[in-house]
Amino acid sequence: MSTPKKLLYGLLAFITLSSKGILIYNEETIVALTFFVFVRIAFHFVETPLAEALDSRSEFIQKELATLLSSVQKSYKEMISDLNNIATISSVVDYSLSTASTNLAPLKLADKLKAQQEFKVVLTSMLDEFAINRAKMQLSAQKNKAERLRTQVTKGIKLVNNKAPTKKK
């Protein structure tokens, strides 16, 4: 005999025994027992479809999680390869910078020497110009001094000539 039939016969026996007064109970007990019996019968009939629905939903969720996991793993692998490429590019850039700096070192030295030579030329020309200007100023000062001296000498000569007795003829 199957379980639902046993439950149905048990329910009929309970109802019969209680209606004849063989079983004594109150209303709350009968309501509670009836509720549990109803839940058991309903669960029995719904159990299989409910389990199948939950199983199919579980399988769907597992597939979605597997897909998500594989896409995340793929994404992480791509990120790792990108990081490796970046590291490779970084090492190439570092190598090229070090190579360029070693290749540019003689050029930097040549530029430094050229700048020193240009500075020396500019400084020499400035010193020459200063010396020329100083010589011009000294020459101008000597000319002014000579002019003043000549002026004073001429004034002195005139003064002497004016004070000297003149010979009459």
TrEMBL record:
Chief site of localization: mitochondrion
Alphabetical GO biological process terms: proton motive force-driven ATP synthesis
Residues spanning the signal sequence: none
Compartments reported by the entry: Mitochondrion membrane
InterPro entries assigned to the protein according to its UniProt record, in alphabetical order: ATP_synth_Bsub_B/MI25 (IPR008688)
Database matches in Pfam families: Mt_ATP-synt_B
Assigned GO CC terms: mitochondrial membrane; proton-transporting ATP synthase complex
Protein name: ATP synthase F0 subunit beta
Gene name tied to this protein: atp4
